[in-house]
Amino acid sequence: MKRALTDLALFGGPTAFLRPLLVGMPTVGDRARFLARLEWALDNDWLTNGGPLTTELEGRIADIAGVRYCVATCNATAALQLVLKASGVTGQVIMPSLTFAATPHSAAWVGLEPVFCDVDPVTGCLDPARVEELITPDTGAILGVHLWGRTAPVIELEKVAAEHGLKLFFDAAHAFGCTSGGRPIGGFGNAEVFSLHATKTVMSFEGGAVTTDDGELAERLAALRNFGIDRDRSVNAVGMNAKMSECAAAMGLTSLDAFEETRARNQENHALYRSELRGVPGIEVLAFDEGERNNHQYLILLADREVTGLHRDRLQALLEAEQVFPRLYFSPPCHQMPIYRTDPPLRLPHTERLSEQVLALPTGPSVSFEDIRRVCSIIRLAAERGGQIEAMWDQAVPA
Ligand SMILES: *Cc1c(COP(=O)(O)O)cnc(C)c1O
Q1: Mutate which of 95, 197, 328 to test ligand 1's pocket (most atoms within 8 Å of Cβ)?
Q2: 11, 167, 185, 223: most buried by Cβ count inside 10 Å?
Q3: Across residues 127-133, what is the average pLDDT?
Q4: 151 C-alpha to ligand 1 centroid (Å)
Q5: What mean pLDDT comes out for the span 64-72?
Q6: Ligand 1 neighbour 81 (Cβ under 6 A)
Q7: How far is the CA of 169 from the centre of ligand 1 (A)?
Q8: pLDDT 10s digits, 236-289
Q9: Is ligand 1 within 6 A of the CB of residue 105?
Q10: What is the best residue among 61, 74, 77 to mutate for testing ligand 1's pocket, by most ligand atoms within 8 Å of CB?
Q11: Is residue 399 pLDDT above 60, yes or no?
């Protein structure tokens, strides 16, 4: 793989960066504030079990999502499991395959069957018409994903769910602070689930949050995350331990304090990537709807091999040789993972096409404008010389 550096250098390309550029660098915010919150928790001997920091974080997330209830958890995967359990879903759950493994895992882990649905070729989110085709008497719920912060067709999916008497949830791990039709993500379907994992735009080391307007659901969730212990201290359900700790909440609050700044900076980064790569054949920096609010958490590049002549994985290797480390969000798609693969293989053409083209590139406050210009110069060069690089590669790497 190191060969790639030499190849680009042969074409007058850039040399190695001084420091590696990574996707999903943590947005800590003001470290002193985090430490002060942590000191406060330690001073007060209140480290977990629905402490004041967790309660404050839940309140702030509920406000941003425009809902009445927020239930914070140890991570989003557990939150998705709790939501499916607490809602009494049985049978099959229709969901996209173009998502993180946690989405189908959460259903499978609570005994439900993930049913993978193809996505809209442009948005990468569930296509309501395809969803409808997959509904059977066994269907219990629809689980949409707001991929890359581009929101799923929430209203159409709400309509499909209502017509067929199904529950509807969203994995909103990518969509903190985003809107759809001007309304904040977090308030659609029966419930939505955010991730506060260290790589996400607002993070609490590990963490998750369910938002909903359904008070009974919120109450069941609060019990289930705490061993099934309900308001009267009586255990009426097989619960688990999915609580958020006060340490995580302290981080979540501090990262949330910085969210607006992070978001603004990522938006500038996105604009620069767009302008630097404008007009490069076969290369598209995914755009966002100007009329909506977006967190710009992910910088998504779609590289069309048929135009550039360069395989996406080759482009990734070229970037890595220059200390730029893209992530494949999401490749392979879930239906091609060994655990979910079927025989004969399920074919989801739009999902597979997007999955073969996608590269998430470094963004966030720690990535400078100069970094971005250099990343883009590699991509421009690679895309323009795609065929040549591919041919050299075949010679350099013995079969
Ligand atoms: C990060 C992520 C998750 C999992 O979140 P955790 O908090 O790490 O459990 C689920 N779905 C998607 C789409 C994600 O990106």
Answers
A1: 197
A2: 185
A3: 98
A4: 16
A5: 98
A6: no
A7: 14
A8: 999 999 999 999 999 999 999 999 999 999 999 999 999 999 999 999 999 999
A9: no
A10: 77
A11: no
**Looking at ligand 1, which residue's alpha carbon is closest to its atom 5?**
76
In this prediction, residue 14 carries a pLDDT of 56
143 vs 19, higher pLDDT: 143
Q: Quick check: 18 pLDDT over 70?
A: no
Q: CB of 217 within 8 A of CB of 185?
A: no
Number of CB atoms found within 10 A of residue 232's CB: 7
| Every domain of the chain and the residues it spans | 5-14+258-326+362-395, 31-257
CATH topology of domain 5-14+258-326+362-395: Aspartate Aminotransferase, domain 1 (3.90.1150)
Tokens, residue 135: 């509904």
Q: Matching CATH topology for 5-14+258-326+362-395 and 31-257?
A: no
Centre of ligand 1 from the C-alpha of residue 209, in Å: 11
Report CA(15)–ligand 1 centroid distance (Å): 34
Is ligand 1 within 6 A of the CB of residue 208? yes
- Count CB-CB contacts under 10 A for residue 16: 12
- pLDDT score at 10: 53
> What's the CA-to-centroid distance between 318 and ligand 1, angstroms?
28
Say what the pTM is.
0.94
Q: Is the CB of 174 under 6 A from ligand 1?
A: yes
Query: How far, in Å, CA of 57 to CA of 36, rounded?
Result: 16
